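Show me any protein, fold above all:
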Amino acid sequence: MVRWLKMKLKFIDLFAGIGGLRQAFEDRDTECVFSSEWDTFSKKTYAANFGEIPHGDITEIDEKVIPSHDILLAGFPCQPFSSIGKREGFLHETQGTLFFDVLRILTHHRPKMFLLENVAGLVTHDEGRTFTVILDSLKDLGYQVFHEILDAADFGVPQVRKRIIIVGFSKDAGVKSFVIPKTNHRECFVNDILENNPIGYSVSEHLQKSYLFKKDDGKPQIVDEHSKIKVKTLVATYHKIQRLTGTFVRGGETGIRLLSELECKRLMGFDDDFKVPVSRTQMYRQFGNSVAIPMVKAVADEMKLTLKAANKG
């Protein structure tokens, strides 16, 4: 085995949020050497669980001060690119987007692997041109790039949550091919993760009558201990109690309640003891913006196995 594989693989965690990608990737053979997140509340949750406060806005951090690393992780937000037309070099073409910051760090450090995550809509954004620029930019750096739209529901969480996963290997990683896993062969339904009437999450009777059930159209989605289903995607605005996108639970003081903190953790595949030192509004926002841990872990594990297999001897 080559020397760098005998040591812990060092990774960085960009647009870190509350550390979902880190939790999915980190194990005894890896070490996080840098993290970045601009949101104050997310940084608080990250620090409570990982013992370190992420650096701030990545757009203001010089790539040269970021430690050397083997793996780059990034759940970068999708922004429209300012120019998609005549190619003038990938850094120019992505200037002004947060993807540009991923590229400039990859350009300087040339890590062995990267894992990028985004909403599935990135693939069709601007009629597919944005995604084409992203893939071409990564390939221009010499990376072998693989991508797949995955659904968290296929990885043992009771939630339909489709995301695009982009994986890359540098030429010196020795990887010839890679297959992104589409399932971890585990099944879970929402009734498997529900609490027994947690206190304090009730939706008022007035709000139910005036808004949630103002129409007899089968909305919103209501679940209980008999619901052997996968629920809708947990969104960052869940706290706003939206009848079309939200999932609510039968029970509580008024008969209908919100998902509890513990249920949100389980819905996303976080451990029950994951610390949430922020308000309920921020809690819903943070989990709604995070990643489904088992889905990313399946990809991360396959990346590590592929890298080791390619560098035996």
Observations:
- The chain has ten helices and nine strands.
- The two ends are 4 Å apart (CA to CA).
